[in-house]
Write a structure and sequence with these properties.
- About 75% of the residues lie in helices and about 0% in strands.
- By secondary structure, it is an all-alpha fold.
- The longest helix has about 35 residues, at about 15-45.
C-alpha cells in the first residue's frame, strides 16, 4: 500500500513548531553573542606576550574545535550531573554552544586581527594612543569588517547545530518536530516543514548579511 502525503495533519502543530524555532533562535543568539566575546578574549590572549595566556587559549581552542558539540553538551548536562552539578537543559545547551562557538570565533578573530596592517597600529600609537586604545579604536573595527562574513557563517552554522540540543530535552525546533512526529506518524511531512523553517531562517540571515556587506560604508 502506497504512502499518501497529508500536510493537513501537520498544520495544526505549526504553532508548536514556531515556538520551537523561536527557542532555537534565542539560544543561538545568546550563544553567539557570548561566544563571540569569549572568542575575542581568547584571540587576544593567544596574540599576547603572556605565555600562560597563549597556552591557555591554544588548549581551549584545540580542545573544543576538535571534539563534537554533542559530546561537549553531554559532558555539561549529563557528566557534571554525576558530580552533583545540575544544570537545566536550556542553560546547559547555551553553555555548550557558547564554549564551542567561542573556540571557532577565536580563530576567526585572530586571523582578522593579524590581517590589519601593522602600520595602522603604529599610526595610532604615534597619535598618542595607548596600545589598548589603538586596539579598540583602530585595529578591532578594521578586523571586524574583515571577519564579518566568517562570523555570520559561524552563527548560521551554530543555529543549525542547535538541533543537537534536542538530545538533552531542550524543546527547540527539532525536539518539537520529533514530538509531533510521534503523535501524527507523519515523518515525511513534519520534517519537510521543519527543513523549510530552518532553511527560511538561514536564507534570510544570509541575504541580510550579503545586503549589509554590499551597503556598508567603506572606510
Amino acid at each position: 500500500m502506497g504512502y499518501t502525503i497529508h500536510f493537513s495533519e501537520v498544520f495544526p502543530y505549526l504553532p508548536l513548531l514556531v515556538k520551537g524555532l523561536l527557542l532555537s533562535i534565542a539560544i543561538t543568539a545568546a550563544s553567539t553573542l557570548i561566544g563571540t566575546l569569549v572568542g575575542l578574549f581568547s584571540a587576544v590572549a593567544n596574540l599576547s606576550s603572556y605565555k600562560i595566556g597563549r597556552i591557555t587559549s591554544k588548549v581551549y581552542v584545540e580542545a573544543f574545535r576538535n571534539t563534537p558539540l554533542l559530546v561537549q553538551m553531554y559532558l555539561i548536562y549529563f557528566g557534571l550531573g554525576q558530580f552533583g552539578i545540575q544544570i537545566p537543559p536550556i542553560p546547559a545547551a547555551i553553555v555548550a554552544m557558547t564554549i564551542n562557538t567561542g573556540a571557532y570565533t577565536a580563530v576567526i578573530f585572530q586571523a582578522g586581527i593579524q590581517a590589519v596592517d601593522i602600520g595602522q597600529k603604529e599610526g595610532g600609537l604615534v597619535l598618542g594612543m595607548t596600545y589598548p586604545q589603538a586596539f579598540r579604536h583602530v585595529i578591532l573595527p578594521q578586523a571586524f569588517r574583515i571577519i564579518f562574513a566568517p562570523l555570520m557563517n559561524q552563527a548560521i552554522s551554530l543555529f543549525l547545530f542547535s538541533a543537537v540540543a534536542s538530545t538533552i530535552t531542550v524543546p527547540e525546533l527539532t525536539h518539537q518536530a520529533m514530538f509531533v512526529d510521534s503523535v501524527t506518524w507523519r515523518t515525511f511531512e513534519i520534517f519537510i516543514v521543519t527543513t523549510g523553517l530552518y532553511f527560511a531562517c538561514t536564507f534570510l540571515a544570509t541575504v541580510l548579511s550579503d545586503l549589509y556587506e554590499r551597503t556598508r560604508p567603506v572606510k
